[in-house]
Amino acid sequence: MTGTAPAASPGPAGYTAARPAPVRRLTVLYDAHCPLCVHLRHWLQLQRQLVPLDLVPAGSAEARRRFPELDHTATLAEITVVGDLGQVYRETSAWIVCLWALARYRSRAHWLTTPAGRPFARGTVLAAARYRSLALPPCAPGVRECATPPGGPWGPR
Fold first, then answer.
1. Exposure pattern of 28-49 as b/e (b: 16+ CB <10 Å)?
2. What is the arrangement of strands in the sheet containing 80-83, beginning at the earlier edge strand?
3. From the centroid of its chain, how far is CA 7?
4. Which end of the chain is more exposed for a tag (fewer CB within 10 A), N or C?
5. Alpha carbons 109 and 51: distance in angstroms, whole number
6. pLDDT tens readout for residues 20-73
7. Residue 84 contacts residue 25 (beta carbons within 8 Å)
């Protein structure tokens, strides 16, 4: 099934094409060490997809092979979705395009791109980032230096 993805945000947070390109497949790069990310990956797999989603661990050998030009450290810090024609969606736009690919949530994804829906989408992404930062403590008891948790530094920017 083909379609045209919702507009990605301009600049470094997303890709904006001069003309919308049909999207036939999307690759979702998710943090395989994050319980929330793994839960959402499983949820996406259970949904009826209008556009097929390939779910690939961010920073993995497979992700590096498929997308050598991406900053793979950044893909661990923020959700990244790549379209079959090279479109790159990050942060809020990535969540919206994932919903857009699903039969049950396509109309909701379109609403999330409107001026009324965009703040709700951004708030949801920030809440997920906050949850993730709490779910992955950066310091182990008795350790002198705190390591960055798997998936990088999360939380509101």
1. bbbbbebebbeebbeebeeeeb
2. 53-57, 26-30, 80-83, 88-90
3. 15
4. C
5. 13
6. 668 899 999 999 988 888 989 999 999 999 999 999 999 999 999 999 999 999
7. yes
